[in-house]
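Practice problem 4.
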């Protein structure tokens, strides 16, 4: 079942097992059970520290990953292949005794949870956001015996997916009720259960020389460049990685012919941690102001002081602002074709947006869906010609230009999209089960005070040194008026802002 390259990779990790492991498997005579059994036996044959035993579990096929004695609380219902193969490997290492790589204060929060919690996460093996959630909940199960977690592969348990009306992955259920949907960090998941990190954890923070707000490519680059100058550097991060975490294939990062967003940002985070950077994850900033110093106020009320600040808050997908958009989010409205596309296999769907992102999504989705409608507001598509040529070759795609979306409607989930032909003013309704919205990005700057200059698009105005109009406050990346929004440009602008901040500090 595993190819030679995968087995060679797995063998290296199995050598790191610190204790014995038992796969406790519930298997039937169906084809999926046979595949699961074959997978488990193949892995077990590679290490004398792994054994396989049979049990009757709530789902068949499924298997628990347990230490030699006792239970870990980790269960996989379905084969953990694709993007979830990493989740499987990490589960083996952590159950066998290797400590998970999380911040000590987060581990303490998890261990202090004093209630029985059983999480279930529905995933797609093509979803690059799902492993973050699966791995986070597995860590919580390893650290706290009152917590358990089951990963459920949606393709193998399609009946459950339809019964629970799961229209986006990852979707997490807690005690049988929907708990969360979409990519979440371990800090965010713990906060939903145990509340925010106590403000006392920030009591000993001295004044920073540079405080970076944001954890995408621009923020990470800023922190690295600042720390390399030997000045006191901090990062306030809601979720590390930013929009890059939503990007599957990256082929234009110079020197790296191909990588994937989550992999790239994991490497970037490790790079940041090689320096003396005070990384404060899972924290949202709600205000910034200039006094003698720059004050950055967190959502928990804590105020951090710094001599300079770099705003690198990135951007988010633009809304279309029509009735039904908010109501059906994760109930048929989606933004990531790689993650949620498999849930719409054999169905009719719509893609709103004729730029590169929209056309790339339509091409991907055409391999799964019965039919794809592409709606573009303008008279012609805006995507690169090579993408338009590929799209035109697909027989199950219909392109509709001059289309103004009016409403997305349905019952428990999306059932239809209504639009107006801007040329004839005629109204049309498409019977679709899903709508993917990809119409560009909006800067995450709505929380900023009016004292910081922004252009009409809400982007922070910066000069050639990354400086804003407020002395001591700099900005970088997609939240600024940078002409082009690219990973490599964000990294460069982060470096520029850090060097600009350092120059400001030595001159002031």
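Answer key:
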């Amino acid at each position: 079942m595993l190819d030679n390259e995968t087995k060679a990779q797995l063998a290296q990790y199995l050598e790191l097992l610190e204790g014995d492991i038992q796969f406790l498997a519930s298997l039937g005579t169906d084809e999926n059970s046979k595949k699961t059994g074959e997978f488990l036996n193949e892995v077990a044959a590679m290490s004398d520290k792994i054994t396989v035993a049979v049990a009757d579990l709530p789902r068949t096929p499924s298997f628990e990953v347990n230490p030699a004695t006792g239970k870990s609380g980790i269960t996989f219902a379905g084969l953990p292949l694709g993007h979830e193969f990493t989740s499987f490997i990490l589960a083996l290492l952590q159950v066998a005794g290797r400590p998970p790589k999380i911040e000590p204060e987060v581990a303490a929060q998890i261990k202090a949870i004093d209630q029985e919690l059983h999480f279930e996460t529905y995933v797609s093996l093509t979803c690059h956001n799902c492993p973050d959630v699966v791995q986070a909940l597995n860590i919580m199960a390893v650290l706290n015996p009152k917590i358990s977690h089951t990963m459920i592969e949606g393709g193998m348990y399609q009946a459950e997916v339809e019964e629970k009306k799961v229209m986006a992955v990852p979707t997490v259920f807690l005690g049988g009720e929907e708990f969360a949907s979409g990519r979440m960090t371990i800090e965010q998941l713990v906060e939903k259960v145990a509340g925010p990190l106590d403000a006392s954890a920030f009591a000993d923070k001295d004044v920073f020389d540079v405080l970076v707000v944001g954890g995408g490519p621009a923020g990470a680059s800023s922190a690295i460049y600042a720390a390399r100058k030997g000045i006191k550097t901090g990062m306030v991060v809601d979720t590390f990685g930013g929009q890059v975490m939503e990007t599957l294939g990256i082929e234009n990062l110079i020197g790296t012919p191909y990588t994937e967003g989550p992999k790239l940002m994991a490497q970037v985070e490790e790079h940041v941690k090689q320096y003396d950077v005070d990384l404060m994850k899972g924290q949202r900033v709600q205000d910034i102001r200039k006094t003698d110093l720059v004050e950055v106020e967190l959502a928990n009320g804590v105020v951090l002081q710094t001599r300079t600040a770099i705003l690198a808050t990135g951007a988010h997908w633009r809304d279309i602002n029509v009735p039904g958009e908010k109501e059906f989010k994760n109930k048929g409205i989606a933004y990531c074709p790689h993650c949620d596309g498999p849930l719409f296999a054999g169905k009719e769907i719509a893609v709103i947006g004729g730029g590169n992102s929209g056309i790339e999504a339509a091409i991907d989705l055409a391999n799964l869906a019965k039919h794809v409608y592409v709606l573009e507001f303008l008279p012609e598509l805006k995507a690169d010609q090579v993408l338009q040529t590929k799209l035109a070759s697909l027989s199950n795609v219909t392109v509709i230009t001059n289309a103004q979306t009016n409403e997305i409607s349905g019952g428990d989930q999306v059932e239809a999209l209504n639009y107006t032909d801007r040329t004839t003013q005629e109204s049309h309704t498409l019977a679709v089960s899903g709508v993917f919205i990809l119409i560009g990005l909006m800067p995450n700057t709505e929380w900023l005070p009016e004292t910081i200059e922004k252009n009409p698009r809400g982007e922070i105005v910066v000069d050639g040194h990354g400086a804003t109009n407020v002395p001591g406050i700099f900005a970088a990346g997609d939240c600024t008026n940078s002409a082009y929004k690219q990973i490599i440009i964000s990294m460069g602008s982060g470096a520029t802002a850090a060097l600009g901040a350092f120059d400001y500090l030595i001159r002031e």
